[in-house]
Amino acid sequence: MSLYLFKSWNFTHSYNGEPNVSLVKVRDKYQVTLPAAVRRKAGIAVGDLLEAQVKDEKITLTPKRVVDRELALAIEDVKKGRVYGPFRSSKEAVRSLRGRRRRSSSP
């Protein structure tokens, strides 16, 4: 078996056309550029957040989605069934809310 070293920082190795291994170079300020094939496969776009974890000497980058706290609470309510509706129209939804308000303010 022969070992070849490449000067190119974006060398990829593949058996079926898809990159299995991508080498990237650490640049000034410890920045790295993810190869296009890796970005596409992971669905990463400019501005996305990546969680960086280190275990032993292995670095893992995981795409993360940030959800507003209020939105997260609302999604939890929906999952637990704490919702009204469904409504066929906005008028029907407003009527339902007004009716609930009247019932809650009655002695």
Keyword list:
3 helices, single chain, 2 domains, Pemi-like Protein 1, Chain: D, alpha+beta, two-stranded antiparallel sheet, about 110 residues
Mean pLDDT: 80
- Regions with little confidence, pLDDT below 50 for 5+ residues: 6-14
In sequence order, what are the helices and strands, one letter per element? Answer: EEHEEHH
Query: What is the CATH architecture annotation of the largest domain?
Result: Ribbon
Q: How are the strands ordered across the major sheet?
A: 1-2
- Strand coverage percent: 15-25%
Instruction: State the separation between the terminal residues, measured CA to CA.
Output: 86 Å
Tell me the count of domains.
Answer: 2
- Kindly report the CATH topology of the largest domain: Pemi-like Protein 1, Chain: D
**Fraction of residues in helix:** 25-40%
The major pleated sheet works out as: 2 strands, antiparallel
Describe this structure in words.
The protein is α+β, with helices and mostly antiparallel strands and 107 residues long. The chain folds into 2 domains: 12-64, Pemi-like Protein 1, Chain: D, CATH 2.10.260; 69-105, no CATH class. The protein is 32% helix and 17% strand. A hairpin with a 2-residue loop joins β3 and β4 (58-64). The radius of gyration is 26 Å and the shape is elongated. Residues 6-14 have low confidence and may be disordered.
